[in-house]
Structures are given as structure tokens and as C-alpha cells.
Amino acid sequence: MTMENTRWPYFDPDYETTCSSFNPPRVTIENDTYDNATVVKVYSADRHGILLNVVQVLTDLDLSIFKSDIFSDGDWFMDVFHVVDRCGKKVTDEDTLQYIQKSLGYRTKREQSSADLLRRSAGLTFSDHTVVELTGPDRPGLLSEISAVLTRFGCNVNAAEVWTHNLRVACVIYFTDTKTGLPIQSQSRLGHIKEQLIRVVKGDRDEQAARCKIEYATESTHIERRLHQLMYDDRGHEELDSSRNLQDRPNIQIKGNDRGYSMVSIQCKDRPKLLFDIVCTLTDMQYVIHHALINSPGPDTTQVSFFL
């Protein structure tokens, strides 16, 4: 993995806080402890969402987390991640290792500016675009119909990501004016685009079945993080997909204990970004993760335990 083909992740601008200035995260990366994995350790002052930030950084670098021990005690937070690259090997590229070190640790304003430049060069920021967020009932050909509406209104789609779940769809689309290459500023034009998109997305359903939001894009938007939030907000409209095999559903158990914690145990098929998806969901539900154990004993199985 080299600097040229690595997709550098987005960093929350609030990450560099006064607390982190006085108690900067301590990050260590070990490549000599295990033959088959790189070990990333993060020790820092605790705050809500910090686990999501760490997992997001590793996930955006296409690193697979196959084992982890997460512990929070009072005001402090300790993470140990066993990671491999997209080829299943230890992370040996020096640029990637240095970037993990700087991104998870305390960064000066100059280092933060350098990180922003790297993200721009990698094409991960969309500050000069208009963004549309859509949720609604899924159906064949929907994305084609959405694209046709944008084309008809003179929009050039520059980036898009679409998720589907339980017969629902969520998508984030970045676009500019076809003629000028700039974000569309006309509120009247944007209003017509929104009206047509809602009509297309809702299909033969009522107006409440579809949602559409159009605004000027900012650099603070992490697309997959935003899709998680859109899906979570849309959960009241979900329908059971009868075509899904019930045997493929994860086995989830929730138990209480005498220490006031709830233990959530999950056993399911392993896949890329699984831990990121789980942590996003728990964070959106306003749960605080005090302790967690993640283990992938085989290529098709992941066992996760959270204490909330």
C-alpha cells in the first residue's frame, strides 16, 4: 500500500480539543509481536465517540480488524487492535504507519492542514459541490431514475454512494452545475430538483415514505457515517425482506449484569467494515461502550461482545 493508492480518511475537526492538547492520545504500533498482524494501541482521555473515530480511521485505510480489546475506565480509554491490510498481511508501508500514528495521536494545526491537503488530493472532500441526501422505498431502476432527474436539470454527478437495507434505500449524491462546474446556488432551481426527486423516490407511496435534503457540501461530511445516520433516522419505515435467508441473520443476545452494564453479544459472518457499522449503530443510539472484545476465529465468523 503506497501513498498514491491509499484513500486517506476524514478526521472530525472537533478531534483536536483542549482536552487532547493537555492529554494527547498515545499511539503505539507494533509489527514485531505477531507474525500475522500489526498491533495498534491507543491510550487517551475518554470522550463520547472516540472509539468511532479510531475505528473509522482504520476502516477508511482499508485495514481489517480481526481482533480487538477495548476498555474504558472512568476518564481514560484503551484500545488494542490487531489489523491486516487488504491482502491479509501486516501493515508494512511506512507512509501508512506514519499516517496512522499522526491521525490517531495529537496533531498540531500544521499537521492537521497537511492531512487536509492529503484528503483533497485523494478526492475525499467535496467542499465545492451541492449534496443531496435521499431515503425511501427501494425498487429496481430507482438509481437510474434519480440520475435522469439530475441530468434533466443540468446537474453533473461527481460522486455518489447508495445503501439498501430491508427494502429501503439511502443515498448521498454530490453534484455540480453541468455548464459552470460550480455548486448550484439558485434556491428556485434546487426546489424544483427536490420536488422531482421526492416524486421519483416515493413512487406510488405516500409523501412520508421519502425524504430529500439538498444543501451546500462541507468538508466535515463523512459519507458512510452520514449514510448510517440516514438509515437510523429512516428505521420506522423498514419492511421485512422475505427474500433474505433467516439463517444469514446475526445471532444477537442482550443480557444485564449486577454491575449495571448491558452485555451485547453478536455472532455473525465476517465482512469488511463490520466493526465500523456496529460502532456507528451503537453511537447513533447514544450508547456508551465501556468494554468490548472482538474476535474473528475464521474467515466467515466474527464474535463481538460489548458492555454498554
Summarize the structure.
This is ACT domain-containing protein. The protein is α+β, with helices and mostly antiparallel strands. It has 2 domains: 13-123 and 253-307, no CATH class; 130-218, Alpha-Beta Plaits (2-Layer Sandwich).
- SS elements, strand count: 12
Helical content (DSSP H or I, runs of 4+): 25-40%
Principal-axes geometry comes out as globular
Count the helices. How many?
8
Largest sheet: 8 strands, antiparallel
SSE succession: HEEHEEHHEHEEHEHEEHEE
Structural class of the secondary elements? alpha+beta
Radius of gyration: 21 Å
Tell me the strand order in the biggest sheet: 1-2-4-3-11-12-10-9
**Number of domain modules:** 2
- Weakly predicted, low-confidence segments: 1-11, 13-20, 108-124
> What oligomeric state do these chains adopt?
single chain
Distance from first to last alpha carbon: 36 Å
Can you tell me about this structure?
Residues 39-122, 131-208, 263-308 form the ACT domain. It comes from Ceratodon purpureus. Keywords: Repeat. This protein is an alpha+beta fold and 308 residues long. The protein has two domains: 13-123 and 253-307, no CATH class; 130-218, 2-Layer Sandwich (Alpha-Beta Plaits), CATH 3.30.70.260. The protein is built from eight helices and twelve strands. It has helices at 18-22, 50-60, 94-104, 109-121, 142-152, 187-202, 223-233, 274-284; strands spanning 26-30, 38-45, 64-73, 76-84, 130-137, 155-165, 168-177, 211-216, 251-256, 262-268, 291-298, 301-307. The strands form two sheets. Strands 1-2-4-3-11-12-10-9 form an eight-stranded antiparallel beta sheet, covered by helices on one side. Helix 2 packs antiparallel against helix 8 (274-284). The model is unreliable at 1-11, 13-20 and 108-124 (pLDDT under 50).
